[in-house]
Amino acid sequence: MRPSLLNPLFAPVTSLPGVGPKQDKLLRYLLSRDETPRLVDLLLHLPSNVIDRRARPKIRDAVPGTVVTLEVTIDRHRPPPPRNARAPYLVYASDDTGDVVLTFFRAKPGYVEKLLPVGEKRYVSGTLQMYDGIPQMVHPDRVLDEEAIAKLSGIDPVYPLTEGLALGSLRRAIAQALQKLPALPEWISPEVIRRCHFPPIAEALTRVHQPVELTDVLPDQPFWSRLAFDELLAGQLALALIRAQLRRPAGVRNAGDGHLRNNIIDALPYALTPSQRNAAAAIADDLKQPVRMLRLLQGDVGSGKTVVALLAAAAVAEVGKQAALMAPTEILARQHIKTIAPLAERAGLRVAILTGREKGKERRDILARLADGEIDLLVGTHALIQDDVIFRGLALAVVDEQHRFGVRERLALTSKGEAVDVLVLSATPIPRTLVLTYFGDMDVSELREKPAGRQPIDTRAVPMSRLSEVMDGVARALQSGKLVYWICPLVEESEAEGTEHLTNATKRFESLQKRFGDRVGLVHGQMKGTEKDRVMAQFAAHEIGLLVATTVVEVGVDVPAATIMVIENAERFGLAQLHQLRGRIGRGSEASTCLLLYSEPLGEMSKARLKVIRETTDGFRIAEEDLKLRGEGDVLGVRQSGLPGYRIARSEVHSQLITQARDEALRIMKDDPKLQGDRGEALRCLLYLYERDEAIPLIGAG
Ligand code: ADP
Ligand code: MG
User: Fold this and answer.
1) CA distance linking residue 351 with residue 369, whole number of Å
2) Which of 18, 265, 392, 699 could form a disulfide with 373 if both were Cys (CB 3.0 to 4.6 A apart)?
3) Pick the residue with more confidence: 5 or 630?
4) Is residue 517 part of a domain?
């Protein structure tokens, strides 16, 4: 249960005066929430800038083009003449040095009269301009009386906005939310408070939203840093709690004698690489420990993660327990089962697949066999976390391409068994700080070397003006029986929200079809799963030679015979994405070629990206370069500059705080793992504030 102390902060924003359904909609969008945001969401929406209104010159001395606050007397009003309603409403005001005209366009009747009563003194703040030699202020940002101005510092926060949402109304809403802030207990330890010079939470929130100094809103200053630390601590603590609560019952171990694993290794048509062997051994060791496993297996595309995951599943099956492998897409899930099924069959491991496509009787059969323990490894998509999917004894959850799943989905899968071991597969090498923020203290195995026999990929950048030469090259390749990918970017999302725009891919498909006829196929994300699979299968079977695709082939698709890839508008793709895409070729024993088609002129960033991708195929190096080019937040493909899943912490600024928060979380786990007592109660508040409360039910009431 959420501490009742926090209730005012969890009231919906629509409970604030002046926030109605229209604002609700805009705020949902701004704050990325599916439901009406709460006051706490407003308070954690921090300013991106400030406006300094402290300059208070006389009218005569005000510098045109600057923001000033003028103390004036209102002299007279000149509403637009009746026949020209679109003319501005003018208000003439003055001080003892001169006159100023305050201009309002399309003012509502009565609004200006009330705002600026004739004969009264007011403070007007905004950008001063000269118009026909007369000082003018168009739509003053603020109009204040003596009493109101006394309360303000003269520094206004500026917030990230969304179209249709006015800065003033967001500011007012946040100011009102601040008024509702209850007295919160301190959850950070006195040592850390002292060492980091953190202010109390109320002061931190007040000062970023109502800055007294221009620097108060900077992320590296104590106010923002304190909030960032809170957010990071909540994240670290939640991860640590989840992990600590899931110790295995005494004597229970999740790996057997190795007989199934040996069967699989014997059935492999190749030898494991040393790093695959090391990873498999580390996993087997984890499975025998009294604490559950939380391990990240990182390896470039094509480095052979699937077989390592299969060996983990086999270890679990050796003691009669079950494993699940969850992939983010249907294509990937099918790919996994295709690799796994023949090996599993020969090893005596029973596998099945469950996605959105298995329905009716087929689905019921799978679920029945799963519940009876007749399936050792279930591969699938999100479909695995549906409520009616019940395992007899789930002991291992393998999550592929983890960053596409949220923490909640991962939990939903692991909650289908007791003290379930978790193995996360990631093809995007993740920097250490991100591993910490995202997974907490997690063990990491890396597959550094490529399986033997892989040929290098020749990567070249080619301007669009040479398209016809590229086409000729493709023609020759098709002639000699090669398989070619042609990747087109999705056009940026436009009005029709969230739908892919396929003009590029379909247009290109049509023009290629004109030349190459039925040797061309097309796959994109809006096709049905079965349809996609059919085209992919035709490609793998050489029935079609040229596959036009959007980025649906980015993740995990495996057609080792494909050796050529053309990426159109390569300048529009991020580094990680280019690397993932290119990973679809160079998987077999034949040399591969990747052509990066770009439109001129190239921006600096695009130029730098194409250079990196031409120079190396080492995913770890590419990730490092990516980091340098765009900052950590984007390595996982997240657009905001923050850390994924974090609203306040910024990896560039707060990386020191990440480790400090981790250490603080570990100390808490040592001293008070059940979060009891006053500090425990305070920490529970923290977890709720930052929506990291999913672990609280696991530890029970305080
Ligand atoms: P990823 O790490 O991208 O998931 P996969 O597990 O899909 O890579 O493996 C890519 C391909 O490499 C598969 O066709 C797989 O059979 C093959 N493979 C995996 N390990 C080895 C190895 N040690 N030697 C040769 N080929 C391997
Ligand atoms: Mg894979």
Assistant:
1) 11
2) 392
3) 5
4) yes
Span 125-144, mean pLDDT? 93
Kindly state whether residues 103 and 184 are assigned to the same domain: no
Residues with CB under 6 A from ligand 1: 270, 272-273, 276, 299, 301-307, 339, 427, 451-452, 556, 558, 560, 587
Q: Which two tokens stand for residue 594?
A: 């990747």
Per the CB < 8 A criterion, the answer to whether 193 and 133 are in contact is: no
Write down which residue in 616, 651, 675 finishes a domain.
616
- Do 40 and 174 reside in the same domain of the chain? yes
Q: Which residues of 327-343 are buried (b: 16+ CB within 10 A; e: fewer)?
A: bbbbbbbbbbbebbbeb
Residues 600 and 497 in one domain: yes
pLDDT, tens only, 638-697: 333 456 678 899 877 888 898 899 999 999 999 999 999 999 999 999 999 999 888 788
Q: Are residues 29 and 123 in the same domain?
A: no
Atom index in ligand 1 nearest the CA of residue 272 equals: 23
**Which of 629, 235, 673, 204 is CA-nearest to residue 433?**
235
Q: How confident is residue 495, by pLDDT bands cut at 50, 70 and 90?
A: very low
CA of 306 to the centre of ligand 2 (A): 6
Give how far the C-alpha of residue 423 lies from the chain's centroid of Cα atoms, to the nearest Å.
20
Q: CA-to-CA distance for 477 and 140, rounded, in angstroms?
A: 66
**Residue nearest (by alpha carbon) to ligand 1 atom 26:** 451
pLDDT at site 635: 41
Distance 451 CA to ligand 1 centre (A): 7
Residue 106, domain member (yes or no): yes
Residues 102 and 178 in one domain: no
Q: Output the residue whose Cα is nearest ligand 1's atom 22.
A: 451
| Residue of minimum CA distance from atom 24 in ligand 1 | 451
pTM of this structure: 0.64
What tokens were used for 389? 């999917």
Q: What is the mean predicted confidence (pLDDT) over 38-66?
A: 95
Q: What is the pLDDT of residues 291-347, one digit of tens each?
A: 888 898 988 877 899 999 999 999 999 999 999 999 988 888 988 999 899 999 999
**From ligand 2's centre to the CA of 6, what distance in Å?**
44
- Amino acid letter for position 75: D
Point out the least confidently predicted range of 231-245, 255-269, 278-292, 420-434.
420-434
> What is the residue range of 40's domain?
4-50+161-217
Q: How many structural domains are present in the chain?
A: 3
Q: Does 545 lie in the same domain as 607? A: yes
Task: Give a yes or no: residue 374 inside a domain.
Answer: no
More confident residue, 629 or 193: 193
Distance 182 CA to ligand 1 centre (A): 56
Per-residue pLDDT, averaged over 447-469, amounts to 88
Q: How confident is the model at residue 454 (pLDDT cuts 50, 70, 90)?
A: confident
Q: 691 lies in a domain?
A: no
Amino acid letter, 427: A
Do 474 and 578 fall within a single domain?
A: yes
Give which of 326, 368, 323 is closest to 349, Cα–Cα. Answer: 323
Ligand 1 pocket, mutate which of 306, 308, 446 (most atoms under 8 A from CB):
306
- Alpha-carbon distance 120 to 125, whole Å? 16
Percent helix, strand, coil in the chain (nearest 5)?
45, 20, 35
